[in-house]
Amino acid sequence: ISVEEFVAQTLERIKKTDEKIHAFITVDSQNALEKAKAIDKKIKSKEKTGICFGMPISIKDNICTAGLKTTCASKMLENFVAPYDATVTARLKSEDAIIVGKVNLDEFAMGSTTEFSYFGATKNPWNAEYVPGGSSGGSGASVAALECLASLGSDTGGSVRSPASFCSVVGLKPTYGLISRYGLVSYANSIEQVGPVAKTVEDVAFLLNIISGHDTHDNTTANNAHVDYTKDLKSGISGKKIGIISQMIGDGIDKDVASATTSAVSKLQDLGAECIPISLDAVEHSVAAYYTIASAEASSNLSRYDNLRYGFDFSTEGYEFKAFVSKARSHFGPEVTRRMLLGAFVLSAGYYGKYYLKAQKVRTMIKAQLDEAFKKVDYLISPTMPILPFKIGEKIDDPLKLYLTDINTVTANLSGIPAISVPFSMSSSGLPIGIQLFANSFKEKELLQAAHALQ
Ligand code: GLN
To answer: Where is the chain membrane-spanning (predicted)?
Structure first.
């Protein structure tokens, strides 16, 4: 079939499926079809096409797309259209990918369930009463529901891996600095990365080839030699050493998740890996450190939404300056407001040393303990999420409970190392369970090889 027909069918599927799943905030049918037609033309005239030609891809709605809304699932950016493409968007487009639309998230990527979206929650495609994980829930759900072939999400504390695990797809949080953040709306810049979400490890490797690498627009990107992540993907893990993180398989873990982890370890052992327990005791403080640092950076980043630089239309009539700004800012949702207050508090003169500084020390401790661990092992393993997907609404009123579900994911963000979630099994109740593998910084190639062996 032609690319146009394929894309038309994909758009039809989105229309039908999304009534139930609500993964998309914006579907860009017209541009998608036009791009498809242009590719068909290229093929007909034997012109060279990009390597993603015709691939329908969705993009998390906090990654800029020129001419197409980027809302961050917030009232504050309800009608914001970025005048430029994020580097990752531009790289996909230049390889002839078809951007079918922008997908849902927790407002400004703050959350773990995609329930905190101004546009309403996304549902888990495996059971629509359950959360899809978050904050890149739209990415996970759109791939799992076959509304696109792949998606880009962002991962500040687990936002690519949580939905990957809950929706049974693959999600990678790359090493800090591997992928450009230019055009990713900042939440907590020092820990976040764009990450690919796809059905298979092969597809994730394929996308990583395209979106990774140095970018003059983002000075935090590393200028490393080019790596082909798709090459030698099937090398296996025979002879490799894997550390099972003790702190991530103990108390509070769901029994189905625990037994899936045991089976994953056995599978890796059967494939010739040696698995040993590894203790990282700083992990016990990681959630506290993460929410301190992430909120601090968020409170600073979100100060630009004052309805002067960014915001939505409402009349200034009858307001003096401060009242106007506070009125506008009162339109942030509850979770974003909580983070901004928390962040301003931990950065305030009287509490900076007590909270923010301590959190940074925990971060250094985590990194040091990981450096030690990687002297002994090639990889680390844990369940991605300690619990199974839960019902929509079940935890929304208990922020602390929600924060604690990030216990296994935030370590990779605080330390900068790469981590991947691979679908492993289903619970007795029919809900997906993902397993997480970590490797040392810039060892994505090895990480993908291990993930491929596990998948
Ligand atoms: N759940 C975490 C948070 O709410 C992670 C979010 C993310 O990675 N963007 O901050």
So the answer is: none
pTM of the model: 0.97
Residue 415 lies in a domain: no
Could you tell me the residue range of the domain that residue 197 belongs to? 3-211
**In the numeric block, which tokens belong to residue 240?**
């490799």
Residue 440 lies in a domain: no
Q: Give the closest residue to 387 by CA, choosing from 255, 244, 263, 247.
A: 255
Quote the CA–CA distance of 210 and 213 in Å, as a whole number.
8
- pLDDT by residue for the chain (455 residues), tens only, comes to 999 999 999 999 999 999 999 999 999 999 999 999 999 999 999 999 999 999 999 999 999 999 999 999 999 999 999 999 999 999 999 999 999 999 999 999 999 999 999 999 999 999 999 999 999 999 999 999 999 999 999 999 999 999 999 999 999 999 999 999 999 999 999 999 999 999 999 999 999 999 999 999 999 999 999 999 999 999 999 999 999 999 999 888 999 999 999 999 999 999 999 999 999 999 999 999 999 999 999 999 999 998 888 887 788 889 999 999 898 899 999 999 999 999 999 999 999 999 999 999 999 999 999 999 999 999 999 999 999 999 999 999 999 999 999 999 999 999 999 999 999 999 999 999 999 999 999 999 999 999 999 99
Residue 382 inside a domain? The answer is no
Query: Is the ipTM, as predicted for this complex, more than 0.90?
Result: yes
- CA of residue 385 to ligand 1 center, whole Å: 13
Domain assignment present for 434: no
What is the CB < 6 Å shell around ligand 1? Answer: 109-112, 135, 154-159, 187, 294, 406
Q: Spot the catalytic one: 58, 112, 135, 154.
A: 135
Pick the catalytic residue: 159, 162, 180, 415? Answer: 159
**Burial class for 234, CB neighbours closer than 10 Å (0-12, 13-18, 19+):** exposed
60 in catalytic set: yes
CATH of the domain at 156: 3.90.1300.10
Identify residue 286 by its one-letter amino acid code.
S
Is residue 438 a contact partner of residue 409, using CB atoms and an 8 Å limit? Answer: no
159 CA: nearest ligand 1 atom? 8
d(CA 377, CA 375): 6
DSSP symbol at 234: T
Count CB neighbours of 317 within 10 A.
Answer: 6
Number of domains in the chain: 1
Distance 188 CA to ligand 1 centre (A): 9
